[in-house]
């Protein structure tokens, strides 16, 4: 399926897919957002474009995102204006014209309670969504710029991961969501990070660099399990997404287009394998019990 944008609509600036997978939002350089719905059969898919009145003429949006459960939508503008809305009703939850100098990145927490946002000036803020107010500003040193942010998704470790630029060093820092205190950092990339992503099950964190590298880290130990050098040779990786069902990632860049990379990470246990191990342990226990009492 394809859709041709009219000249007056401008070019796509940012794209985000709704968690349902049935539609996606696109912010355009003419200062509006357009919703695209997929319909039809797999062999004959079509795109239906919809205008959303609350998102018309709001200015160029550098970052747009949906919450994990798809019930909320957020848009951050080049002008620093931050909007959070219910989806699909589009009821306004937060409308802050001066949230940042210019929005760089943002992400919803797993439970949709918080939104983290970063600015081009290096600052980062946490927003309490239900109350529609800023909760705190993340602490940083004077020579640090917080550029990217992603919440943990495994449901057990309430952390916020941020890509921090400290001079010519790229760091990945971690904040504890219970206190919003910084608890540590590690250098994972050689060059500045351009994009960050967390796998759907929360096991892996991935970073793409401005010179085309990607690294994939196991969240539990913060150890690198996969590193691809110059995957997008000499160009910035613009998007990085994990496949929901397989250990592969999709990356895109202006020069090299879209690439799919199979990750060199430990294989996940299948459900039947777990049951087989449990059955084996049960049989061993039964045999041992029989021998002992005989």
UniProtKB/TrEMBL annotation:
Q: How does it sit in the membrane?
A: Single-pass membrane protein
Q: Which PROSITE patterns match?
A: WD_REPEATS_2
The record's subcellular locations are: Endoplasmic reticulum membrane
Matching entries from Pfam families are given as:
WD40 (PF00400)
- Enumerate the SUPFAM superfamilies for this protein: WD40 repeat-like
Which GO terms are recorded in the biological process aspect for this UniProt protein? endoplasmic reticulum to Golgi vesicle-mediated transport; protein transport; regulation of COPII vesicle coating
Q: Write out the entry's keywords from A to Z.
A: Endoplasmic reticulum, Membrane, Protein transport, Repeat, Transmembrane, Transmembrane helix, Transport, WD repeat
Keyword set includes Endoplasmic reticulum: yes
| Transmembrane portions of the chain | 272-293
Picking any one GO molecular function of the record gives:
guanyl-nucleotide exchange factor activity
**Could you name the domain of life of the organism this protein comes from?**
Eukaryota
Q: Which GO terms describe its cellular component?
A: endoplasmic reticulum membrane
What are the start and end residues of each WD repeat?
103-137
Kindly provide the name given to this protein in its UniProt entry: SEC12-like protein 1-like
**Which organism's genome codes for this protein?**
Trifolium pratense
